[in-house]
UniProtKB/TrEMBL annotation:
Residues of the C-Maf-inducing protein PH domain: 12-81
Oligomer status and interactors: Interacts with FLNA.
InterPro entries in UniProt: CMIP, LRR_dom_sf, PH_CMIP
Organism: Heterocephalus glaber (Naked mole rat)
Location, primary (coarse class): cytoplasm
Pfam families reported in the protein's UniProt record: PH_21 (PF23066)
Listed name of the protein: C-Maf-inducing protein
Length: 685
């Protein structure tokens, strides 16, 4: 019944009519019923006669009846509204059209979409309407928008209204439920970008009200809901998509002005003089489209061309610095491109950059960065927000803008303060070879505007949860040793601990660097104390190895961490190879004593409270462990994955643990010597 012409069955049982009947030709539609005759019939009155339609049942007949009436009326309204003369009559017809759609018994998306498309076409063809006429039309179609997304042309009309009359009551009373529905139910702004643009303009209109960001804040609260968990999973990704697109639009003028800029190679080599071209701002775009939140540009791919930005609105101040790392300064003959952070951080031609936005772009940026800050305040949203922002989905122009990085710092701090690993792990790069927020906000990074306080906070939280501690320390030693030593010199306890761990794990091979670290530690009270403790531990370890001791040891049941600590401190256990703590009350806290047993090969933790944190520590130190019993312990995938570094394991009991099938397959692939495995009463069984 959706076609413009209706092909009907003749009342004779001999096929179809020769000619179709046009909907516009139908003068009347009636239900027919009489005794001793077909019960389910429709009578169509057309010029020159009537047509009878017989249905198999009353439901089908009623569907035909309402469909024909609907199509006939829609055709009438299209004709009436296509040639408007008096707008008060047009408004009345629109209201009647909306009432018809709302009262129709038909259940189909087109019942509500067709009137919206008619009005959308009417508005696009009549651009000379007054503001009051605009608002009257919007109010008239408001009931249809409660359960339907506006079509693209209507979204464009709504955007224009938000821009021109942000303080109109229509924005609050009519647009608010429409935008709420979009944020709750939209699945992909890429397929309907005008919905995203309408949402963006609506939020900017809220920001223009007298209360400004307070109104926006209340709107975000209404989208989250009053409980601690937002019941609508699409709200956060949709809000983030709108924020990213809005922030991108603030720098779009700069992104599109790249005709007269120096190449990255010229900037890197210092060959470009500030006066040769104007302006000089070497930047590479992270994402070609703001709607692709998780898409990343592969900066090292030789097939991609370097993209450089230039704009008359960008002002660059040239300032020579001596803090750039020599390793990051390439020779003139090297054709390779610098990476994201190096380009902005150590470029000899421009180490200080200032981007000036226009007033409107500046307000837009402030509004949407504030929204990102609001989103980061919700505990249930923070894990997903961190994951969405981990690839750094912002243009390079934004990362070079001091105001943007300074405001966004609050969001990064919230990630760094969150104890959940799924949140603060997103501070690291999304994959090897890419730069992450950790690099941007570390000393020397383009976004760092403090003396390393945020960097120290990030290092502290990452060290507490990263089971690959040695790998992380090695990365710090290679890339951030200078900032670590500087902060340790200023008495930062986290950095003092980092330097001590580097010495303890033999991360630093160069003797001169080791001596410099020791001098740094001895320059402060806290550093001197922690370095002395490190020396004491190493002396005790060497003494244990020299004295030897028993090769097997079993602790009595119900023993505690304190009991184990007293026992191990009472004698020499340098030769201890087999330790059973089964059915004791030890926890992960005892791991710091177990790692002092250099000869340990077999460890039984059956039915203890030893957990993930302890496993991570063991995996870093007891690399020679061959037999490990974790039966009936509270360990999970998070800790069991750390065992993949213990290549000597040949027997592993994970009976009655929270082992998953995926983790089990991963362990089998990474532990080549594993021959005996017990996974009964687990998901992998």
């Amino acid at each position: 019944m959706k076609h413009e012409k209706l092909r009907t069955e003749n009342i004779q049982p001999t096929g179809y009519m020769e000619n179709s009947v046009s909907y516009s030709a139908i003068e009347d539609v009636q239900l027919l019923s009489w005794e001793n005759a077909p019960k389910y019939c429709l009578q169509l009155t057309i010029p020159g006669g009537t047509v009878l339609l017989q249905a198999a049942n009353s439901y089908l007949r009623d569907q035909w009846f309402h469909s024909l009436q609907w199509k006939k009326k829609i055709y009438k309204y299209k004709k009436v509204l296509s040639n408007p003369s008096r707008w008060e009559v047009v408004l009345k017809e629109i209201r009647t059209l909306v009432d018809m759609a709302l009262t129709s018994p038909l259940q189909d998306d087109s019942i509500n979409q067709a009137p919206l498309e008619i009005v959308s076409k009417l508005l696009s063809e009549n651009t000379n309407l007054t503001t009051q006429e605009h608002e009257n039309i919007i109010v008239a179609i408001a009931p249809l928008l409660e359960n339907n997304h506006p079509p693209p042309d209507l979204c464009e009309f709504f955007c224009k209204h938000c821009r021109e009359r942000p303080r109109s009551m229509v924005v609050i009373e009519v647009f608010t439920p429409v935008v709420q529905r979009i944020l709750k139910h939209n699945m992909d702004f890429g397929k309907c970008p005008r919905l995203r643009l309408f949402t963006q303009e609506y939020i900017l209109a809220l920001n223009e009200l007298n209360a400004g960001m307070e109104v926006v804040k209340k709107f975000i609260q209404s989208m989250h809901g009053p409980t601690g968990h937002c019941p609508h999973p699409r709200v956060l990704p949709n809000l983030v998509a709108v924020c990213l697109a809005a922030i991108y639009s603030c720098y779009e003028e700069f992104i599109n002005s790249r005709d007269n800029s120096p190449s990255l190679k010229e900037i890197r080599n210092g060959c470009q003089q500030p006066c040769d071209r104007k302006p000089t701002l070497p930047l590479r775009l992270l994402h070609p489209s703001p709607d692709l939140v998780s898409q990343e540009a592969t900066l090292s791919d030789a097939r991609l061309k370097s993209v450089v930005v230039a704009s008359s609105e960008i002002h660059v101040e040239v300032e020579r610095t001596s803090t750039a790392k020599p390793a990051l300064t390439a020779s003139t003959g090297n054709d390779s491109e610098p990476n994201l952070i190096d380009c902005l951080m150590v470029s000899p031609a421009c180490s200080t950059m200032s981007i000036e936005l226009g007033p409107q772009a500046d307000r837009t940026l402030g509004c949407y960065v504030e929204i990102l800050k609001l989103l980061s305040d919700y505990d249930d949203w923070r894990p997903s927000l961190a994951s969405l922002l981990q690839p750094i989905p912002f243009p390079k122009e934004a990362l070079a803008h001091e105001k943007f990085t300074k405001e966004l710092k609050y969001v990064i701090q919230r990630f760094a303060e969150d104890p959940r690993q799924e949140v603060h792990s997103c501070l690291l790069s999304v994959r090897a070879g890419k730069d992450g927020w950790f690099q941007l906000y570390s000393p020397g990074g383009v976004a760092c505007d403090d003396d390393g306080e945020l960097f120290a906070s990030m290092v502290h939280i990452l060290m507490g949860s990263c089971y690959k501690t040695k790998k992380f320390l090695l990365s710090l030693a290679e890339n951030k040793l200078g900032p670590c030593m500087l902060l340790a010199l200023r008495g930062n306890q986290t950095m003092v601990e980092i330097l001590c761990l580097m010495l303890e794990y033999n991360i630093i091979d160069n003797n001169d660097t080791q001596l410099q670290i020791i001098s740094t530690l001895e320059s402060t009270d806290v550093g001197r104390r922690m370095y002395e403790q490190l020396c004491d531990r190493q002396r005790e370890l060497k003494e244990l190895q020299r004295k030897g001791g028993p090769t097997r040891l079993t602790l009595p049941s119900k023993s505690t961490d304190a009991d184990l600590a007293r026992l191990l401190s009472s004698g020499s256990f340098g030769n201890l190879e087999n330790l059973s703590l089964a059915f004791t009350n030890v926890t992960s806290a005892c791991a710091e004593h177990l790692i002092k047993l250099p000869s340990l090969k077999q460890l039984n933790l059956w039915s203890t409270q030893f957990g993930d944190a302890g496993l991570r520590l063991l995996s870093e130190h007891l690399t020679m462990l061959q037999v490990l019993n974790l039966c009936e312990t509270p360990v999970t995938d998070a800790g069991l994955l750390a065992l993949s570094s213990m290549k000597s394991l040949c027997s592993l009991n994970m009976n009655s643990t929270k082992l998953s099938a995926d983790t089990y397959e991963d362990l089998k692939a990474k532990l080549p010597n594993l021959k005996e495995v017990d996974v009964r009463y687990t998901e992998a069984w």
